[in-house]
Amino acid sequence: MSEETEKLLSKTPLYDYYKRKAVKLIDFGGWALPIQFTKLAEEHQAVREHAGMFDVSHMGEIMVQGEQVADWLNKLVTNDVQAMKVNQAQYNTMTNEAGGTLDDLLLFKFSDTRFLVTPNAANTEKIYKWMESHKEKSITIENVSNSYGLIALQGPKAERILTTMTQTDLSILKSYSFFPSEKFGDIEDVIVARTGYTGEDGFELYVSWHQTQQLWDKLLKAGAYHGLKECGLGARDTLRLEAGMSLYGHELTEEISPLEGGVGFAVKVDKKDTFIGQEALRNQKKIGLKRVSRGFELIEKGIARNNYPVLNSEGEIIGTVTSGTQSPTLGKSIGMMLIDKEHAAFDHKIWIQVRKKQLEARITKKDWLKNREKKKEGM
């Protein structure tokens, strides 16, 4: 990446740190971010076996407040906001009138009148404008993305590492819950959420933008004994793919509904509050999906990348690869695809056009990590 291009990119609070360490940066959705610090496989395995730390400060944060804010949010998202308790997080999607996915995001409930919405980096401005265009008089919406840095500490030793830095009992924090204001030395008001994007236990730490570097350094020091590694975007992608987690722009787009994209668990078509896209999604469910998201494993050697065609035995295109990689944990090539429902039976053979070759593969569930755990238990 040229210096001219880099100057035009948005920078996280760790940008100067990256430059001092001579970490190679790439253009990721308009942000200057590291693809890796050392070797991708090493960073990946550190998260699976010990712990890894990611700078995800490019993600968005939008604060919404108002007496009827839960009712209002429930009309914009597919999951049931009314089911949330205080200090609980919820995975969600926003859809357009046709049921296409505007974004997948997390909601954090601080109180009955205050929520934090966290969209994907590339969608922050789109989601902010969408929310503003549907704003009710009693609601206030503020894009506070420039106020927060965000560090993801992930892996089986994440709790052990973070426990050394606080007096709070982190073991009582359940998955998809959060502490709204924690202190780490002289770093105050850190939101500690038991959430992540790797398939492992871990935390996401929302910290003041100007104290992000300070918290990063503290975590590195605390985690040195436990095998903590700094991790880049490359490991983040292979980890989430092994965990079967959808990525916006791949499994989910404005042309792909959350039902089609594999996150139907976050769609409550029969909830009391009518939301934008509800009718379209209800019809999809009633009539039956014409295409679905599935996992696959290549039988032949190779890697199937995004947008590669998926074929049946007659050579007809029946789907498209949405994500693909060589799995460091499994030692095989895996991926996800959007495929015609009539051809989507598990264990069926398919072929993927990888450059000039058609490579044989089989359709799988996205439970690669669960299968790994079963194998461990049987050893």
From TrEMBL:
Its EC number is 2.1.2.10. It comes from Marinilactibacillus psychrotolerans. Belongs to the GcvT family. This is Aminomethyltransferase. The glycine cleavage system is composed of four proteins: P, T, L and H. Coiled coil: none annotated. One of its GO terms (molecular function) is aminomethyltransferase activity. Keywords: Aminotransferase, Transferase. Residues 14-271 form the GCVT N-terminal domain. It catalyses: N(6)-[(R)-S(8)-aminomethyldihydrolipoyl]-L-lysyl-[protein] + (6S)-5,6,7,8-tetrahydrofolate = N(6)-[(R)-dihydrolipoyl]-L-lysyl-[protein] + (6R)-5,10-methylene-5,6,7,8-tetrahydrofolate + NH4(+). The keyword Transferase applies. Residues 294-366 form the Aminomethyltransferase C-terminal domain. The gene is gcvT. Transmembrane segments: none annotated. InterPro entries: GcvT (IPR006223), GcvT/YgfZ/DmdA (IPR028896), GcvT/YgfZ_C (IPR029043), GcvT_bac (IPR022903), GcvT_C (IPR013977), GCVT_N (IPR006222), TrmE/GcvT-like (IPR027266). The glycine cleavage system catalyzes the degradation of glycine.
